[in-house]
Design goal:
binds adenosine-5'-diphosphate-glucose; 9 helices; alpha/beta; Spore Coat Polysaccharide Biosynthesis Protein SpsA, Chain A; elongated
Length: 447
């Protein structure tokens, strides 16, 4: 089998032009409502907090910067206010060099185009006039909600050395993915992609993204799981979007299959590192829990060669007074009293009261310190932001600025798998309780 491997030697800069001049990344922030609801109720996917100090989009942005790709266009549409604000504040001066930039292009309407962007291809087509500003050789298309560490230099090198029109990154992770909407492809013995389609809605298959045993009789390999990451030659992209398929809305279902049917050179590139497509509550929760493990096969936030960038907040260190903490990560600026924390992610500025227990949970933290107001609230009427005394939280996601009262139990006591209790401040998805942003859960509640 002839899938290019991510283990290839480093990018030979003598042979090819430097990536900061010759490649532009197009990062997708979010297009529509997603299965990450209610985390996406007021924000887009890319802006969801992850791993205590970061937002989802930081991972892909950092991969670009660490790969010396410094011309970055971020296309945003759905609930994009917080994402646009994060991107412009975090990446305005981060080591992008003199020609580097992060340009946020929020969906817009114009006299000719009165609708929102209809999909990934439509979004790129309508932004071509901006994207074509620099004479790059390739565009690198990247979904902004994946957790992985990829050196894109190797992907670009594989693309260039095979002289492909399009290269699709595929993951070697065994995904067991039952997701409709997940793309898969077949290749022939020359690594030419001969088929590319979305997983059909009604025929879920337990699939191994790359499994050399799953070869069909003609020698092609089945069910390579697409990561939704494409390298496309600049002139090929313009031609596909404007001449060949001017009405196509989507890369996965229309542009890429169209390019294959036209006989274009579409190749695959095997990525064999950790990759989590955080497109559901369950996968988002799993990725966060993976971050709390010492021996992790998950994402490595501690790799000195691949730092993860984010917005500097200049917060004070976390204050721990009597807390017992195991297997957890704690963000900046928290105040943790005599509580017990196990296997959890504790986000920035979290306040946890005495005798509270937090297990196998993700607490996103708070946007503000309450200061004097917290004291007033503790003494009186309102429930302050944070987790009140003697409360117990297990297998839950607590969104930002939530106010959990005293003696509350969030333990999914009835083992509900799916439940919409938005009016009461929470949801249950795949057995995981999600407390909504800014929700108030009164003292003594049991969920
Ligand atoms: P999806 O992520 O389901 O699958 P796709 O429609 O290609 O779907 O969107 C890619 C990303 O772009 C998503 O994050 C989406 O929210 C965002 N997006 C869509 N329209 C946008 C717009 N107008 N503006 C900004 N962002 C927009 C893709 C591939 C599959 C592959 C999976 C792997 O389609 O083939 O298997 O990724 O995760």
């Amino acid at each position: 089998m002839c899938v290019s491997s991510s283990q290839d030697s480093e990018y030979p800069t003598t042979q090819y032009p430097s990536l900061n001049q010759s490649v532009a990344a197009i990062v997708f922030g979010d297009g529509s409502e997603s299965r990450l609801y209610p985390l996406t109720k007021r924000r887009s996917k890319g802006a969801i907090p992850i791993a205590a100090n970061y937002r989802l989009i930081d991972v892909v942005m950092s991969n670009c910067i660490n790969s010396n790709i410094t011309k970055i266009y971020a296309l945003t549409q759905f609930n994009s206010t917080s994402l646009n604000s994060h991107l412009s504040r975090a990446y305005s001066g981060v080591g992008l060099g003199k020609d580097g930039f992060v340009e946020v292009i929020a969906a817009y309407q114009s006299p000719e185009e009165k609708d929102w962007f209809q999909g990934t291809a439509d979004a790129v087509r309508r932004c071509l006039w901006v994207l074509e500003e620099y004479p790059v050789d390739e565009f690198l298309i990247l979904p902004g909600h994946h957790l992985y560490n990829m050196n894109y230099q190797r992907l670009i090198k594989a693309h260039r050395s095979s002289n492909a029109d399009i290269t699709i990154a595929v993951s070697s992770t065994t995904i067991g993915n039952h997701d409709p909407g997940f793309g898969f492809l077949n290749i022939n013995s020359e690594n030419q992609v001969v088929e590319f389609k979305e997983r059909p809605e009604r025929e879920p298959v337990d699939f191994m993204a790359v499994d050399s045993s799953r070869k069909s009789e003609d020698g092609s390999t089945c069910d390579l799981g697409s990561m939704g990451i494409y390298v496309i030659k600049r002139e090929v992209m313009t031609k596909l979007l404007t001449e060949c398929f001017p009405k196509a809305n989507d890369f996965t279902t229309e542009i890429i299959p169209g390019a294959i049917s036209m006989g274009m050179k579409v190749r695959s590139y095997l990525f064999d590192g950790y990759w989590e497509d955080m497109n559901s509550i369950k996968s988002f929760y799993r990725a966060n829990m993976e971050c709390t493990k010492k021996e992790t096969s998950g994402f490595n936030f501690y790799d000195r060669d691949s730092p993860v960038y984010t917005l500097p907040r200049y917060l004070p260190p976390t204050l721990v007074t009597g807390a017992h903490i195991t297997d957890s990560i704690i963000g900046d600026g928290c105040i943790l009293n005599s509580c017990r924390i196990k296997g959890s992610v504790i986000g920035m500025r979290t306040w946890i009261g005495d005798a509270a227990v937090v297990e196998d949970s993700m607490i996103m933290g708070s946007d503000v310190y309450q200061g004097d107001r917290r004291i007033k609230e503790i003494n009186g009427m309102e429930i302050p932001i944070g987790i009140g005394k003697s409360s117990h939280i297990r297998k839950a996601i607590i969104d930002k600025n939530a106010r959990i009262g005293k003696n509350v139990k969030i333990i999914n006591k009835d083992n509900v798998q799916e439940g919409d209790r938005e009016a009461f401040g929470y949801f249950i998805s795949e057995g995981i309780v999600i407390v909504l942003r800014s929700a108030v859960i009164p003292d003594e509640s049991i969920i």
